[in-house]
Amino acid sequence: MTGQDVDRPSHALAAGLDRLLGDPFTGSGPFAFAQTVGHEERDALPPGAVELLRSWGFARYLVPEAFGGGLRNLEQLFLLTRVLARRNLTVSVMFGSALLGVNPVWLWGDEEQRDRVARGLLDGDLACFAVSEPEHGSDLGTNETVAVPDGDGYLLTGDKWPVGNATRGRFVTVYANVAGTGSSLLLLDKTELAEGSWDNRAFVRTVGLRGHDLSGISFDRTPVPGGCLLGRPGGGLAGILQVLQITRTAIGALSVGTMDSVLRIALRHARERVLYGREIYAIPVIRRHLVRAHLDLLIAECTALPVTRSLSLAPSRLSLWSSVVKYLVPTLGEEVVAEAGRVLGARSYLREDVASGVFQKLQRDHAIASIFEGTTHVNLHGIAAQLPTVARVADRPAQDGNTLLRDLFDDTREAPVWQPSGRALRLTNATEDEITRGWEPAVARARLIAERELRPAEAGALTKVLDQLSVLRGAFYARIAAGTLDAGTAEAQDRAAEHCLYHAAASCLYTWLYSFEHERTAPAGTAWLVLVLQRLLSRLGQPTEPDEALTAPVEELMLGCVDGPEHFSLRAVRAACRPR
Predict the structure, then answer these.
(1) Domain of 291?
(2) Is residue 121 part of a domain?
(3) Is the preceding omega at residue 565 within 30 degrees of 0, hence cis?
(4) pLDDT for 154-202, tens place per residue?
(5) pTM to 2 decimals?
(6) Is residue 385 part of a domain?
């Protein structure tokens, strides 16, 4: 990141971590691609990688400020995770699994529980979230792990698998059926469990994330204290659904970090590889793959970052918005990986050569993003279940919606400090969806800006794509509102996926309105918006060929980032649009 782009503390913090970890292409430290690939071949993490992060203090950002850590908000952690994920997803997932394991403590734990876990994490301990069972997977309604009363505590019996950090983790948040109260969440500290009453299952051999502790934990009448309950007795299922809203959003950082790396690898290769007497970047189809990948990354960023901010600003919206991020951003990530693979050709299949052969690792590792914290289908089901309610008010602007949208999408503002509270999260959004409901006023404002500020070609292109999207969007929500939608059907999954595209289009528009107020008239300052909206329009079944005059300035910015240290991001676009 450049000095221009660290005006907010969270960005400055991420920039510092980025410098510490070094250039993964040319460096020799534990986060260099050569080190990552070499040790992954042995199912191991590079020596010193975890220690370097701990010495820097990465674990502080898993503990909220209110409990003695450094975590100010989810956006901050997203930016740090993006820096880490573009180098090594396996290490990122290790810390992500720990975050999942401790978030129930931040939301519902008592003072003693929070203090114990905070001190443990700050000292280097890990945590895990023991929910899945071998025979039930994501069927959370079936829970065979049981806790029966025994004096002042319980005897816990059951088998949880697969679980990230199950072996390495000290703290275990367990989903168990407590006799007399129903399924609940229990916080366990392995250091206090009776020896021989529990055991870890062996590490699972996986296609990607090699070296990650994906294992299991079994309990056999394990004595646990009565004070281990987290939150409301019997509220375990609701608690899981609420906790996942946070980590589903954070997973977007894994995808955006991966997109950054695979795009950088493919771009460098395209500029260095010579065929038929010229660099292959000059081949139109290669150029198209790379430009599309860059636009998809920008769409993902526009969609994910505001939702991270909503945890501090409007946590009740996360039930819907987190599922949108969890479905759409990894899906975009998969497409970016595929586009980069097409550019690399045969070299995408190699475990050596280009970027030390790390592309194949990134490709395999990223595949997990669509699977854990609820598969693609699970998240689309959750969106579909709420879609009729959202559709009925889609064209009615929310009261005070503009204020919230500015807070969410103005990147010059630091997100408020997160004050963890399980009561702030909801299981449904009801009609609270300012991102959907703010589209028409935003389009009206964009048309005025186009008329008053933009060059005729840009104004015409922007107005045209907004009109096309508005027609499709209006018909879509009217059709949903007028009919019925069974969330369990394939049709509902398709409708939910389409809603995510309209959500993304609105997010891109709001980002331009609130974060590009002073950069809109620069050559790329509006061109990027037109291009990403055209990209989304194509996904909605309306193929659109981008205007070369608009593509050129955005492409120039993309090429300017290829050798770093700047990430491919909207901050890079905005910085390049500022007067020199």
Answers:
(1) 242-577
(2) no
(3) yes
(4) 999 999 999 999 999 999 999 999 999 999 999 999 999 999 999 999 9
(5) 0.97
(6) yes
